[in-house]
Amino acid sequence: MGTSSIARCLAALTAVLVVALSGCTHWSAAFNAPWIDSKQEVAAVTEQWATAFSKGDLDALTSMYSQDAVIWGIASSRMRKDPSAIRGYYARLLKTFPGTRVTVREMNIRVYGDSAVNSGLLTIHRVSHDAGSNATPTRFSMVYVRRTGKWLIVDHHSSVVAF
After folding, report:
1. CB within 8 Å of 113: residues ≥ 6 apart
2. pLDDT for residue 75
3. Phi, psi at residue 48, to the nearest 5°?
């Protein structure tokens, strides 16, 4: 087979593939692209984290973290490196600022197999007894791993956006 014959075969194969895929409504399945579903799953876990925080649900919130997770929280002077320290951080935060709501504003999710990174912006809506309410723009980074089919947070950092 000559070079021109190979080129014609490759062109024909490419054309067939383009036509076939243009009619495929589930192209991610055609290409076996699990990162698309994984991005949606990570986004859902991030929203679940915000909901658990907003509801003050300590059990739901801390269950989203892996046993080997670390967190450097917005209201923390140190990194929390084990489940009891993470639970203690959130317990104190939720008690100190009851009624705090979190709204996720932006997510940038990248998936690498069974790991994912989500960086973005959220707003913390806090009601305090003396100062009324305020909204604090905050940046976050969360690293996730998928263990036994569930995405868990293994590293979490949040900090106030400085203007």
Report:
1. none
2. 83
3. -65, -40
Residues 6+ apart with CB under 8 A from 22: none
Residue 39: phi, psi to the nearest 5? -60, -40
* Distance from C-alpha of 157 to C-alpha of 117, rounded to nearest angstrom: 11
Nearest to 63 by CA among 76, 74, 49: 49
Count the neighbouring beta carbons within 10 Å of the beta carbon of residue 76.
Answer: 14
- When pLDDT is cut at 50, 70 and 90, the band that residue 18 belongs to is very low
CA–chain centroid gap for 2, Å, is 51
Residue 31 identity: F
Strand partners, 143: 117, 155
- Partnered with residue 71 across adjacent β-strands are 80, 156
- Cβ–Cβ under 8 Å, residues 118 and 111: no
What is the phi-psi region of residue 122: left when phi exceeds 0, alpha when psi lies from -120 to 50, beta otherwise? beta
Scanning 23-154, the segments in alpha helix (DSSP H) are 27-30, 34-55, 58-62, 83-96
The predicted model gives 7-20 an average pLDDT of 47
